[in-house]
């Protein structure tokens, strides 16, 4: 019995070593496949990035006016910053080269039209496909240099719906592998790019590998088939046309197998006497480990059940692998209904599937925003809620990326509170405008009385002339012109007041800041004249538009002008001058409102923009705070500074409109 037992031990040991060796080979093969897939994805990512830059370059060429020097500079930048792109060509509608970067004086046929016959040349075939399909096309690999092989990516150009040529990017396989395959991969594997017949188009390493394709230079003939246990072939599409990536692992030498075998045989023989005792100790330790594992599991389960934040784990393919109870309560579904489920998810909104699908792919690509992603989900009962999702990589015990863990917060109440605060802010702004208008009511009544009195006088004079029968037509016409001018003046005052005090939703659109300042000076002119303040406006014509709400911007200017007028109450009348100016500065419009008052004391300067802070006996303390909120809402900045010869300058800057908005205006 002992001999039989020892023989069985030796047989089992041999079987164990064989299984161990096979497991190692399987792990190597699995690692080869993962690394090859990673490299293939990295090459596709770099290729996509290069194609996006070429596509933006093609969009620049599709415009009506093309600056050749600017295009050459852009093409040179693309070639210099993207090593995989050997050359950029601009072809006209007949396939003739209009420009090449870098210049290729030695390349034949640049000034000749491409042959339109199928199969005449790789570039001609790709040009013909891009012209007929209207989409980018890839050419068959060809020799671009004596020691290098590449392919063409052709982007069609259209102007006014007509085919105007193509932009061609020449990619090099050797440069692509040299710059985009990491060093650690080259230390482990040989990477080759092969064509449909097995010929090598490019290689990262030139070391001989048993069982790999022969010939490490581009265009070499096909060799023996690669060893499937040590090589992995991945189709490389795009560019397609039978191009494939072949990754072959380098052979590793190991002498540990023989040592392990000898040590195992003698160790098993010597351990036969104490194996039972060791087994008993092992079982006792395992029982203790299982008990500790159960306690740890219970502790973590209690922690998960107490969370109010939803947790959702997904694998690399996007299928749900785990959800915690908080997430189940959020969406009203059980864990069994969601685990192992792929897109579309049952809690996605039917009308928002495209956006949810796009966000799903962004997360799988590793481009989830660090600030979180806001989505709107629905529960099983049909109700909806707003969710803020934070995604993080899911790393296993071996340090491998196995998926994504998402933290889901229900922010419905928070968004409702933000909306309520926004509405309250709008009501406060409306109240502030009404208060400002009330303070100006008596002055505006006096301002309206002048044109109305003039209208009555001109009308009476005209009637008297007409009734007398003795009148001069030119004289009556002149009086009527003056009457109409006074009527327009009164109507302008009424329109300005009506536009300013009416309640409306914020309407952000391109508006003229010069007109806003003119309207505000018109509204405050009478009030300033009553207090002996001379208002000076410097708003040159031709300034660009600013994106904003005209009424809100009027509210800012009126508040600042009124503060400046009131600040000069103790200033001698000869120096009561309020200057309003606007200039262009660094892509923005800078507006300055300068008074000649007593200035702002240092002890109150720090809290000047704080809510409910005021130096007036009857003030609310919200005017400057509302002004700053309005300016910051328009992506601008509001501040003040002491004027050189006394007084204060309040300044605010607003960004100018883009070209598209200016054109629309």
TrEMBL record:
UniProt cross-references to SMART domains, sorted A to Z: HATPase_c, HisKA, PAC, PAS
Domain PAS: 295-367
Superkingdom to which the source organism belongs: Bacteria
Gene Ontology biological process: regulation of DNA-templated transcription
Residues in PAC domain copies: 371-423
Any GO MF annotation of the entry: ATP binding
Keyword Cell membrane carried by entry: no
Residue span(s) of domain Histidine kinase: 443-658
Chemical reaction(s) catalysed: ATP + protein L-histidine = ADP + protein N-phospho-L-histidine
Keywords assigned by UniProt, alphabetized: ATP-binding, Kinase, Membrane, Nucleotide-binding, Phosphoprotein, Transferase, Transmembrane, Transmembrane helix, Two-component regulatory system
EC number: 2.7.13.3
Disordered: annotated span: 101-123
Keyword Transferase: yes
Name used for this protein in its record: histidine kinase
């Amino acid at each position: 019995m002992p001999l039989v037992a020892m023989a069985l031990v030796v047989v089992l040991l041999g079987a164990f070593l064989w299984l161990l060796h096979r497991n190692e080979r399987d792990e190597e093969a699995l690692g080869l496949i993962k690394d090859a897939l990673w490299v293939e994805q990295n090459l596709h990512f770099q290729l996509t990035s290069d194609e996006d830059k070429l596509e933006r370059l093609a969009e620049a060429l599709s415009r009506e006016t093309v600056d050749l020097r600017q295009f050459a500079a852009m093409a040179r930048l693309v070639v210099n910053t993207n090593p995989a792109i050997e050359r950029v060509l601009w072809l006209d509608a007949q396939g003739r080269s209009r420009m090449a970067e870098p210049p290729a004086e030695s390349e034949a046929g640049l000034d000749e039209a491409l042959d339109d016959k199928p199969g005449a040349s790789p570039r001609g075939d790709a040009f013909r496909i891009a012209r007929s399909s209207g989409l980018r096309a890839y050419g068959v690999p060809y020799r671009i240099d004596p020691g290098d092989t590449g392919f063409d990516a052709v982007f069609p150009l259209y102007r006014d719906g007509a085919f105007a040529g193509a932009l061609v990017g020449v990619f090099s396989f050797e440069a692509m592998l040299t710059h985009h395959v990491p060093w650690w991969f080259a230390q482990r594997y040989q990477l080759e790019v092969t064509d449909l017949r097995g010929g090598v188009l490019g290689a990262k390493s030139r070391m001989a590998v048993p069982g790999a394709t022969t010939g490490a230079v581009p265009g070499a003939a096909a060799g023996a088939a690669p060893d499937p246990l040590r090589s992995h072939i991945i189709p490389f599409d795009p560019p397609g046309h039978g191009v494939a990536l072949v990754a072959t692992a380098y052979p590793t030498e190991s002498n540990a197998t023989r040592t392990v075998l000898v040590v195992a045989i003698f160790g098993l023989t010597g351990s036969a006497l104490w194996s039972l005792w060791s087994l008993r100790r092992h079982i006792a330790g395992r029982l203790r480990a299982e008990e500790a594992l159960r306690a740890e599991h219970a502790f973590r389960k209690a922690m998960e059940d107490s969370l109010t934040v939803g947790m959702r784990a997904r694998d690399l393919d996007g299928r749900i692998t785990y959800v915690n109870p908080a997430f189940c309560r959020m969406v009203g579904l059980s864990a069994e209904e969601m685990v192992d489920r792929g897109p579309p998810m049952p809690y996605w909104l039917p009308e928002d599937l495209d956006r949810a699908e796009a966000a799903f792919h962004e997360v799988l690509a590793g481009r989830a925003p660090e600030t979180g992603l806001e989505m709107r989900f629905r529960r099983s009962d049909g109700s909806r809620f707003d969710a803020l999702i934070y995604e993080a990589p899911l790393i296993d015990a071996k340090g491998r990326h196995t998926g994504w863990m998402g933290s889901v917060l229900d922010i419905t109440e928070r968004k409702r509170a933000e909306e309520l605060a926004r509405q309250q802010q709008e009501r406060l702004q409306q109240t502030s405008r009404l208060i400002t208008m009330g303070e100006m009511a008596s002055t505006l009544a006096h301002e309206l009385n002048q044109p109305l009195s003039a209208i009555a006088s001109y009308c009476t004079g005209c009637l008297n002339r007409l009734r007398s029968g003795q009148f001069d037509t030119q004289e009556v016409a002149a009086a009527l012109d003056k009457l109409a001018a006074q009527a327009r003046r009164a109507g302008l005052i009424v329109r300005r007041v009506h536009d300013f005090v009416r309640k409306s939703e914020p309407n952000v659109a391109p508006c003229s800041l010069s007109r806003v300042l003119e309207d505000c000076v018109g509204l405050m002119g009478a009030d300033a004249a009553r207090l002996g303040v001379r208002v000076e406006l410097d708003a040159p014509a031709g300034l660009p538009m600013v994106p904003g709400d005209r009424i809100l911007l009027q509210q800012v200017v009126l508040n600042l002008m009124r503060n400046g007028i009131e600040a000069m109450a103790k200033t001698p009348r000869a120096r009561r001058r309020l200057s309003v100016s606007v200039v262009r500065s660094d892509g923005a419009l800078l507006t300055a409102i300068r008074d000649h008052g007593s200035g702002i004391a240092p002890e109150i300067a720090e809290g000047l923009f704080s809510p409910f802070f005021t130096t007036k006996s009857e003030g609310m303390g919200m005017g400057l705070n509302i002004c700053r909120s309005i300016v910051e809402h328009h992506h601008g900045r509001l501040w003040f500074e002491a004027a050189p010869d006394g007084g204060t300058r309040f300044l605010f800057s607003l960004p100018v409109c883009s070209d598209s908005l200016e054109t629309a205006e």
